[in-house]
Amino acid sequence: MRKVQKNERIGVISSILTDNPNQIFTLTHFCEVFNCAKSTISEDIDVIKEIFSNYQLGTIETVAGAAGGVYYNPLMNHEQIKNFTDELCEIIDHPDRIIPSGYIYTNDLLYSPQISKKIGTALASLFNGQEIDYVVTVETKGIPIALMTARALNKPMVVVRNQSKLTDGTVIYMNYITGSNNRIKTMCLPTRAIKKGSKVLFIDDFMKAGGTAKGIIDLMQEFQAEMVGVGVLMATKEPHNKLVDDFKTLVWIDNMDEANKKMHIYSAFK
Amino acid sequence: MRKVQKNERIGVISSILTDNPNQIFTLTHFCEVFNCAKSTISEDIDVIKEIFSNYQLGTIETVAGAAGGVYYNPLMNHEQIKNFTDELCEIIDHPDRIIPSGYIYTNDLLYSPQISKKIGTALASLFNGQEIDYVVTVETKGIPIALMTARALNKPMVVVRNQSKLTDGTVIYMNYITGSNNRIKTMCLPTRAIKKGSKVLFIDDFMKAGGTAKGIIDLMQEFQAEMVGVGVLMATKEPHNKLVDDFKTLVWIDNMDEANKKMHIYSAFK
């Protein structure tokens, strides 16, 4: 068998790392794949680290020690998030998207694999370095961006539902009050979905008064889990006082004017 | 500026293609990125094509002509799908997963970014080469694998809901009868979600009698769209006569024995 060339190894390793964000691969694994020495793989990783940095593809991180290895963090920097959210605002800011009752149609964006992946990666980047065990969302529209956030962080996603299904097994049910219009709603989650003592990140597509996020905080307490972050795609400027103190949004919405089909939507990044 | 080396170009192109399944990049795009000749990029692509094939990372396809370029198809071959579904069956086939009423708990698998990505890529591989405009699913549990199927195919996902929301705008509502227990349920979809004359692939996590898939076929007719394929993660052997004739499943479930917490679950691939 001919020796595998350096550019071949670099291509394969770059593809595998990119395809598996935040998964650690041991150097020994790649030694076996290419039948070569550890020092050779080490040199390859150094090249990959540099090119990922130079071409802003995210970062390649190495972990020392017995459980050590190399992994890909699809981190977007401030400028990349700003550019992406600016583009997104331009797409969202269209009169056709304003629907009766003053909401914005965003299904096509949230359900686009390309866009949801970028939103998820941007949201994951905002919580980079934080200890997170689960990415929690509530059905339905937030699921794709929560899944893509979970993919970027390589953590399991958990979906809170409004009604439980037979396949959920035993669930914890909770009533909560929506912040916007004071309606009573229910949310539920299988008892086995989250381990005690976990730290969770809540991801959703939209926040107005923050009632859902507040509900999730309360529900997490039933699981003896702690909410360590809240990230949303879009948040409204009003009401200013929301039911959760601390959250991050990619995009702000202000001055929705349904009658004139106008709104002010802008990136949260300058 | 120093000349970019071949192994650097191959690493960057491999990463970008992997990260964007079924998206065509022009060779000119990469020429600009690296400030080099088209013939150079052509040679790089040849190397990448070969290593992706050798290491079974999917296929690199080139498209000739004005709109031409190169793209990555994350195609799994028969053996890869078989190995993956065998592993999956081993994980699913555990007494703890059988919950009262004879259902199987799979939320943790469906909501895992790693596993849902593999399921989606496997399902996409089964419909490789077919003309598809949208990947359609019905809320809630099928969404992650449908999104990952849509990602592999680079097509938009559409989520049919049981109840419409304010943010859906105008919707088409349809009543349908579940195949398993003859209950009347509703499904709805925003009128703007699917263009007339589209071809859609329906993806779901589970099929028993096929009532949901049949409902989606009927709903698609309201949109003058055609269902060209049905793919599910798991299907039950019984009832043998399902409400849809033609579907593909990754895994079969047979002889569910709730009392003894036993089931027979096996890959659809030999």
Outline the secondary-structure elements:
Two copies of one chain form a homodimer.
Chain A: H1 6-19, H2 27-34, H3 38-54, E1 59-63, E2 69-73, H4 78-92, E3 98-99, E4 103-104, H5 107-110, H6 113-126, E5 134-138, H7 143-153, E6 157-160, E7 171-177, E8 184-190, E9 199-207, H8 211-222, E10 226-236, E11 248-257, E12 262-267
Parallel strand pairs in A: 5-6, 5-9, 9-10, 10-11
Antiparallel strand pairs in A: 1-2, 3-4, 7-8, 11-12
Helix pairs in contact in A: 1-3, 2-3, 6-7
Summarize the model shown:
With 270 residues, the first copy, chain A, is an alpha/beta fold.
Structure, described:
- Chains A, B: Pfam families: Pribosyltran, PuR_N.
- Two copies of one chain form a homodimer.
- Chain A is of the alpha/beta class.
- The first copy, chain A, has two domains: 6-73, Winged helix-like DNA-binding domain superfamily/Winged helix DNA-binding domain (Arc Repressor Mutant, subunit A), CATH 1.10.10; 78-267, Rossmann fold (3-Layer(aba) Sandwich).
- Chain A is built from eight helices and twelve strands.
- Chain A has helices at residues 6-19, 27-34, 38-54, 78-92, 107-110, 113-126, 143-153, 211-222; strands at residues 59-63, 69-73, 98-99, 103-104, 134-138, 157-160, 171-177, 184-190, 199-207, 226-236, 248-257, 262-267.
- Chain A has a six-stranded mixed sheet with strand order 6-5-9-10-11-12, with helices on both faces.
- In chain A, β9 (199-207), α8 (211-222) and β10 (226-236) form a beta-alpha-beta unit.
- The longest helix of chain A is centred in the first third of the chain and has 17 residues, at 38-54.
- Chains A and B meet through α1, α3, β4, α6 and α7 of A and α1, α3, β4, α6 and α7 of B.
